Amino acid sequence: MARLYANENFPLPVVEALRRLGHDVMTIQETGKAEQRAPDEEILHSAMADDRAVLTLNRKHFIRLHREESSHAGIIVCTVDPDFARQAARIHAAIEAAGDLRSQLVRVHRPN
Question: Residue 24 needs a FRET pair 20 to 30 A away by CA distance; which of 31, 91, 98, 110 works?
């Protein structure tokens, strides 16, 4: 199972569902860094320091960061989905398909 670092805007119900699926998910809120408006680069470096892949809805900025610095523990970018259980299941499946997340950018899209 994956070690993940959920960005501040990531839905807590999805985090909880991923934990039930066996993933080790830490949130920014749990680190005490919530509402500090940390730059995305700092979020990525915090995740890297703890050997965690970033889990985010902030696709545009983290895709750019992946292009600039691909030696990270992984970045999972997602589209918003109000069906939290379905979103967690898609993320779980994408993690399993990707294998080692290190240096990978994984895209998880809401179905049409």
Answer: 110
Distance (Å, rounded) from C-alpha 112 to C-alpha 97? Answer: 21
Q: Which domain holds residue 55?
A: 3-108
How sure is the predictor about 33, in pLDDT bands with cuts at 50, 70 and 90?
A: low
Token pair listed for 31: 């680190």
Q: Is the dihedral of CA 71, 65, 46, 54 positive or negative?
A: negative
How far, in Å, CA of 54 to CA of 73, rounded? 8
| Interatomic CA distance for residues 80 and 106, integer angstroms | 15
Residue 78's CATH number: 3.40.50
Q: What are phi and psi of 77, to 5 degrees?
A: -105, 135
Question: Model pTM?
Answer: 0.93
* pLDDT digits 0-9 by tens, 56-74: 999 999 999 999 988 999 9
Q: In the sheet where 105-108 sits, what is the strand order?
A: 24-27, 3-6, 53-56, 75-78, 105-108
